[in-house]
Fold each of these.
Amino acid sequence: MFFGSIPALVTPFSRGRVAQDTFREFVEWQIAEGSNALVPCGTTGEVATLTADEHREVIAAAVQVASARVPVIAGCGTYSTAASIERCRAASDLGADAALVVVPYYNKPSQAGLVAHFLAIADASPLPIVVYNVPSRTVADISVEALATIAKHEKIVAVKDATGNLARVTAQRLACGEDFTQLSGNDDMALGFSAMGGVGCISVTANVAPRLCSDFQKAMREGHWDEAVKLQDRLYPLHAALFTDASPAPAKYALSRVRPHFPTELRLPLVEASDASKRAVDAALEHAGLI
């Protein structure tokens, strides 16, 4: 169900509000450029600063524009199990195809707590669940053993692995089974991730370079590794540049360079990318042939 290049969509803001028209045009462009699925309301979408109504509006817009052409995986995770369940139900009501549920942050649950959290959500969710493991943000890191336990639940179908540990791909495949979908959460490691058995990437870079990211994933899927390596080299400086300041500030700046008039506005506590970050982005966009 989920494979290939999957942008973790930025949320455009204008004068403090979600720029709905811009977002809809952005989603349409992503699909036209070959993205294989969409993730609204993830970390890159500044979900932490969206109101409940905005959360629903963004998911609804993504679903409506996608119109079943590609799956929509809605960001639904919080550090509260009950709140995460409510978000999953709301996303289902809006027509999303799956829920991306991050490992709970801030409250630092044990492995037993993580298992209980995800199983409770899976029992209550109408949607299949993609577990999002990103210990650099959450502190908590769901272990291979705990992931294997929850992967037995029919609703828990995939992981977005942003641990930065490529050995996890093999360990998780052996523990969770070959049918359990593994998606990279790190653009710069997507080549190695796929070589070890992954099937795609939930990507920041795909916001800015959707066609190149789609071609990159397609090359790996079809076993054209020489082509994939060339695309990796073309995209790598951009992968790095988009994290030279707090994400998604560099990504929004990059979008303003490749899509004129795309708003760079962020919500506090995030602020505009630094001048040094902008210079790095400009150089990377030039290297990739995007400007």
Amino acid sequence: MKLMATGGAAAMLCALVLGYQASASAEPDAPAPTFTLTDTNGKAHNLADYKGKYVVLEWLNYGCPYVQTHYGSGNMPTLQKDWTKKGVVWLSVVSSAPGKQGHYSPSAMNDMTKKMGGAGTAVLLDLTGQVGKAYGARTTPHMFVIDPKGTLLYAGGIDSKPSRKPQEDPEVVNYVTQALNESMAGKNVSVKKARPYGCDVKY
């Protein structure tokens, strides 16, 4: 399988990871692991504060070619804009450890988010990797959808296959959108867990 971004140097820095192995505490239909993290503007976010709202967690590493594809194609920013307009809280979580790929200072992260067109609610800094490990986050991106009761609805890849322009590929099923649409319509989520793909999280 080919990496989705151009630039051999960038690609070499980011290993493709396929597979799913979440911890028991991050299984769909179970309560989502609670946490408090500070965002790039110094504001603390406690997951419990968002009870009553849908929450999307997106594991983020701007140095990852797969992340660059989802942002560069406009796929991730469009999803963020569309769902936050509907009241969904979209939290991008950076678990890259200091000195590892994807780790930036808060101000540099804000600059990168602006450059990449990020439009989520906030970018959270998980410097110890504790939250990422609690969720079993393995790749960037790795997605989790939480319902208003705090129950994990979906965990896994953003969609059904890597694509350069996933929003334009008729064969691609966006599992995040599907989970949110189904749950909001009062239906059971048809795909609760799927294999993530992308770069390994740089714990």
Amino acid sequence: MKDVIVVVGAGQIGQAIARRVGAGKHVLLASLKEDEAIATAQAFLNAGFQVSTAVADVSCRESVQALVKTATSLGNISGLIHAAGVSPSQAPIEAILKVDLYGTALVLELFGAVMAPGGAGIVIASQSGHRLPALTPEQDGALATTAVEDLLKLDFLQPAQVRDELHAYQLSKRGNSLRVMAEAVRWGRRGARVNTISPGIIITPLANDELSGPRGASYRRMIDGCPVGRAGTPDEVGQLAALLMGPDGSFITGSDFLMDGGVTAAFKFGDLAQPLAQP
């Protein structure tokens, strides 16, 4: 049977990774929007990839189960690229937690049960998870191991405890890296690996929404104030993901890779540690 690479979230980052690891394999592009998946698939077909599409809502168990069924019908699942998500300027608190936190845990659970030996997964988290203040060990453990259907019932994820959309996003992305660490143990029993990448500002439609949204000034300040002095590109994320998913990354699992141009370093030890000036 042919090896299958499943891309959940067919945006720019998911596409960039799939281009690096999908040659000679069947690429299944899954998106919430059918037209987005079809347009992306045409570009991949034009570039010589074998590709098909699916519509999937990561916040719905039945939808992800259907995606798993479709994927396994195509061949052995040797790769999972989970890049679906919404940003603080795109959705309210409840939707961010449902898509970014619950949805990621659900995808990891269901695809972790069918990954082929030697397979590898990448989850796209965010630099935001690294700037959330430390949680308690109990909270970390709960984000990592609570049963998926009970995850959003945790007391510190309730409306009175989540300050705003950015806080919900930070909690979700911290949860993603912790969840992957725990899932790496389960995936390892199948001979498969999984890691997270926590990108900084990567120029995509999502990032452009943030740059033009209410937090735009903070985003531009991060770009200008980071050691690299620019935003990143999806292809740069793809290069790291290809390492982690390929044979050169065979000793790496359960790890999170921060690639933010030094933004987090500048928040801790550089000019970004100073508060944003108010108009």
Amino acid sequence: MTAPIIEGAEPWSAAGGDRGVLVVHGFTGNPHSMRPVAEALAAAGFTVELPLLPGHGTAVEDMIPTGFPDWLGATTDAYTALAARCEKVAVVGLSMGGALTAWLASEHPEIVGIACLNAVVSPPEGMREAIEAMIAGGDEVMAGIGSDIAKEGVTESAYPETPLRPLLTLFDAAAELEGRLDRITCPVLVVNSPQDHVVDPTNSDILAASVSGPVERVTAPDSYHVVTLDHDGPAVVEAVTAFCAKVLA
């Protein structure tokens, strides 16, 4: 790492019972955005792990050499460790964390349920070409995508810049993930914000229509992308906690 961990971006965990929940943050973000979810799950008695993904939570320079395989590897390691301690495990993820959550469920049918919040599961049309052109022009970063929040005075602890090459690996993964969604057989909670300015809300429709397991949907009408910190945050946290309690029962 080239910089210390940003205050509030540290990984977080809580010891609870033999039911576990893995909580996964998004691209250029860190555990700060998912702390409300993790803390509510811990208060409900679950064992909770909220890891800091490689390259995140320090300085954007640390993220430039990383990519989706690194983030998936870290997420898989965290799941494996949690599953070794718990009889049942559910997974919750925001944005790219939702993609990682869905990918895990496509590989691990023993996961009892997943909650995907404004998840990216399909590459945005035309974006790859635009990013490749920027890289060809010598750019390594562009403007940040963090803090897409409607609630005044609330800021996400995310990088102020977006690293371009890592973003391409996310697009590659989303393209592959879209074809894997039918492998997901566990219950799925899909949460989406119709006013999302980072991930096209149709991603949630694709996810809900493509998985093989039963689907529940929650809409966050007064929130933008970082729904956990926005106006609908408390209702979303309550819905995620109730869903996890049901699938982990």
